[in-house]
Design brief:
Elements: H1 9-19, E1 23-24, E2 34-35, H2 37-56, E3 60-61, E4 67-69, H3 70-73, H4 77-83, E5 88-93, E6 96-104, H5 109-119, E7 128-137, E8 152-162, H6 165-186, E9 191-194, E10 206-213, E11 219-229, E12 239-241, E13 247-249, E14 251-258, H7 260-269, E15 286-290, H8 297-313, E16 318-320, H9 327-337, E17 341-345, H10 347-351, E18 354-359, E19 365-369, H11 373-398, E20 400-402, E21 413-417, H12 422-432, E22 435-440, E23 448-449, E24 456-457, E25 460-464
Parallel strand pairs: 3-7, 15-16, 15-17, 20-21
Antiparallel strand pairs: 1-2, 4-6, 5-6, 7-8, 8-14, 9-10, 9-22, 10-11, 11-14, 12-13, 17-18, 18-19, 21-25, 22-25, 23-24
């Protein structure tokens, strides 16, 4: 097997997901895949980091029902218009037709906000900060792909209520700090783009898209942050009594990321040999492969078990591969699965009081003293994480190409001048089969011309082909 990531990313991606055993797409509903054990462990570790960050910033975890009454779903007009073509409807209970149809959760604004109107009464109830990690359902009509484009989506979403627009904006800034901390663990780089008016989340005042570059030059949206102002609190009547006894509508935000995080890790870090997993989320951070020759099996296996115990006691997720396969076959299998660090232990290593290591991310080899095995392994795993993070960010920063003409447009993410008008934006998208990602959330200095109409502008925009 020789999979060429750069030559054909889409085929490589599908091949890797299958060979590494991350997901099984043979479930008899298209786009609703089975999380197999190895892939689910990766997702669970990512969820743990999300929970840790949210819990430490005063968010409380909740779990809302899956079904939403149509009466609640339709209260915010822009929201229903944005999701109407994507939702699944429940129309019957047994043989009985329901009086009110039920929506299978596409996202949870319309499930949560009727309850928020009961929970929030006074300014002392604010800010309200909750989150949940659940599955959402959207009728995806494009070609499905594991983790990247599915119909049942493993999803994290936080929802907050605030007394003022300024306090809600501070929450957006806190969300960006949370994002940075999570992405350091997952080694995923990202760009922040304020989405266009026609591409923002239905009902939002503004949306910040969280985009990461894939090897084919295209951007993958891995999440988003939304500032709602009072766009939802007015139709859902979420009000509070301020210190002066006046009733006011709350200002709201949401922050969401999906299982695309796993897809991003595959695309950003994998290579022609298979997965390359960041140590914090790898199901096994270390695999130990005993190198056995005639007459030394007991001694080598005994030493390998002692190393395994020492590493487990240090809190490292380790796998001792003592099956009967040849070492070369084991190396091949664990490279496909992306285990960050491989330890090889033979009689010569034991005699020299060392274990040989091989890094999955860059192929570097060396030895660790057996007397320092735990601290040495921990240091190596942190070095691997740091190196993967820095390499990924370097590629992210190099992915965008600045253009001033639409002739011979490359496959890369594009950076260019835009006057900001919807007319020019739509024309750009329609004529070039490109999607405007929006403008940088952190303003970039720019002086030039709108790439469509030619008017002078200091506004820069980014665009990419859909992945």
């Amino acid at each position: 097997m020789h999979m060429e990531k750069e030559a054909n990313f889409n085929e490589w991606y599908n091949d890797i997901v299958e060979k590494a055993g991350l997901s099984d797409k043979r479930y008899p509903i298209k786009g609703m895949n089975v999380w197999t054990p190895y892939g689910w462990k990766i997702m669970r570790h990512a969820d743990e980091f999300i929970r840790k960050e949210l819990d430490s910033t005063g968010h409380d975890e909740v779990c809302f029902p899956l079904l939403i009454p149509e009466t609640e779903f339709k209260k915010e007009k822009e929201h229903i218009k944005g999701f109407d073509s994507e939702v699944y409807w429940v129309t019957h209970a047994g043989l009985n037709e329901l009086d009110v149809r039920l929506v299978v959760r596409p996202t949870s604004e319309t499930a949560m906000y009727p309850m928020f109107s009961l929970w929030v009464r006074s300014h002392t109830d604010l800010p309200l900060k909750v989150y949940q990690i659940v599955n959402t359902f959207r009728y995806e009509t494009k070609q499905t792909r594991s983790f990247i484009r599915v119909r049942e989506i493993h999803f994290f979403e936080s929802h907050t209520c605030h007394s003022t627009e300024e306090d809600a904006q501070k929450q957006v800034e806190e969300d960006l700090e949370i994002l940075e901390n999570i992405m350091k663990k997952l080694c995923i780089p990202y760009s922040l783009h304020t989405r266009t008016e026609w591409d923002k989340f239905p009902g939002a005042y503004y949306t910040v898209g969280l985009d990461t570059a894939m090897p084919n030059g295209r951007m993958l949206q891995i999440g988003s942050i939304h500032h709602y102002r009072t766009n939802f609190s007015i139709p859902y009547n979420i009000t509070y009594e301020d210190a002066d006894g006046e009733h006011k509508h709350v200002h709201q935000t949401t922050y969401g990321m999906s299982e695309r995080l796993v897809g991003a890790m595959i695309g950003v870090h994998g290579d022609d040999k298979g997965l390359v997993l960041p140590p914090p989320v790898a199901p096994f951070q270390i695999v130990i492969v005993p190198i056995i020759s005639k007459g030394n099996a007991d001694a080598v296996l005994d030493a390998a078990r002692k190393i395994t115990n020492a590493l487990e006691n240090a809190g490292i997720r380790v796998k001792l591969d003592d099956c009967d396969e040849r070492p070369g076959s084991k190396f091949y299998d664990w490279e496909i699965k992306g285990v960050p660090l491989r330890l090889e232990l033979g009689m010569r290593d034991i005699d020299n009081n060392v274990v040989t290591f091989a890094r999955r991310d860059n192929g570097e080899k060396g030895t660790i003293s057996l007397s320092d095995i735990s601290s040495g392994a921990e240091l190596l795993l942190e070095t691997i994480r740091n190196d993967m993070y820095n390499r990924a960010w370097k590629k992210q920063k190099e992915c965008a190409v600045t253009i001033d003409s639409l002739k011979d447009v490359p496959e890369n993410t594009l950076r260019f001048g835009w006057c900001g008008s919807e007319e020019c934006g739509h024309r750009f998208e329609d004529e070039n089969d490109l999607k405007l990602l929006g403008t940088p959330y952190v303003k970039e200095e720019f002086k030039g011309k709108c790439i469509v109409c030619g008017k002078p502008t200091d506004k820069v925009a980014y665009a990419s082909r859909s992945i």
